[in-house]
Amino acid sequence: MQGCLYVVATPIGNLGDITLRALEILRHVDLIAAEDTRHSRRLLDHYGITTPLVSLHAYNEQGKAPSLLKELQAGRNVALVADAGTPLISDPGFPLVAAAREADIPVIPIPGPCAAIAALSVAGLPTHRFAFEGFLPRTQSARRAHLRRLKAEPRTMVFYETSHRLKSCLEDLAAVFPPKRRLVIAKELTKLNERLISTSVGEAIELFLSNPEWLKGEFVLLVEGANETESEVLTEQQRHVLELLLEECPVRTAVSLAAKITAAPHKTLYRAALSRQKKIETLS
Ligand code: SAM
Fold first, then answer.
1. Strands of the 53-55 sheet, one edge to the other
2. Which of 108, 112, 138, 191 could form a disulfide with 13 if both were Cys (CB 3.0 to 4.6 A apart)?
């Protein structure tokens, strides 16, 4: 008999945000794999749960996954928790879940809090489709390059950010996105200093500089997606693919292949191809 791996969501601030099922699973499994055992012990103590903990964090998870897999194969039930929210969502756990799935071990979700979903549910930005981006790259040049690729993204974009990089992140958003784009910042959700700040990409920095106490805490940033006119602008990558194809194929084929490869609108690609052709004709 194999054990089960339970992927258990835990609170993102308010200790009351844990499901009855999560508590039952945490109480009855043989082992809890936790990102930070001291942090999770506080949650477990609060609910009188004494299940043994082992650490599974970003720096040891590749090495630890095989031994946890052995525990599961030996019939022990294991719960996976992160410091806050849903494991694997910008948190450790992927190697263990992938290995367990590969080994045909039942992997069972115990759903609950997730900062991105909580923020989306209250931001007032479109939610029927959204793009979860997690943390942006660490360096400014990589961050801006990444944001430039998202400039024409029509879905609401969701980013995670910590207090020490919030200001730079707001600066980078302002450098790349049009100033009028709506920006909602969900700060310290479910905690004492919870705040939902609705602003725009162009005004956010001023707002935070005049309220410096807002810069502390944990944040979810939600950026409104591009409108139809903005989506008609090709990203650098889409333009590059189109140009490469135009060098090899007739316009119609190049446009149709570029649309398939880059998911850019057919109409926008076609217009860009024609304007490129015109430029070439004028030059020759
Ligand atoms: N797994 C978690 C989840 O399900 O949301 C996310 C973990 S990630 C390491 C931590 C980031 O999530 C923080 O830097 C912040 O961007 C966001 N976050 C977590 N808790 C939050 C809260 N209470 N309020 C706002 N953002 C939060």
1. 53-55, 31-34, 78-81, 5-8, 107-110
2. 191
Strands of 202-278, DSSP E: 218-223
Residues 6+ apart with CB under 8 A from 270: 251, 255
Our answer on whether the CB atom of 225 is closer than 6 Å to any ligand 1 atom is no
What pLDDT, on a 0 to 100 scale, did the predictor assign at position 30? Answer: 98
Ligand 1 centroid to residue 3 C-alpha, Å: 29
Write out the two tokens for 208.
């935070």
Please report how the helices 266-283 and 251-262 are oriented relative to each other, as an axis angle in degrees rounded to 10: 140
- Residue in 169, 219, 221 to alter for ligand 1 test, most ligand atoms within 8 A of Cβ: 219
Domain 116-227, CATH among 3.20.20.140, 3.30.950.10, 2.60.40.1120, 1.10.10.10: 3.30.950.10
Q: What percent of the chain has pLDDT over 70?
A: 100
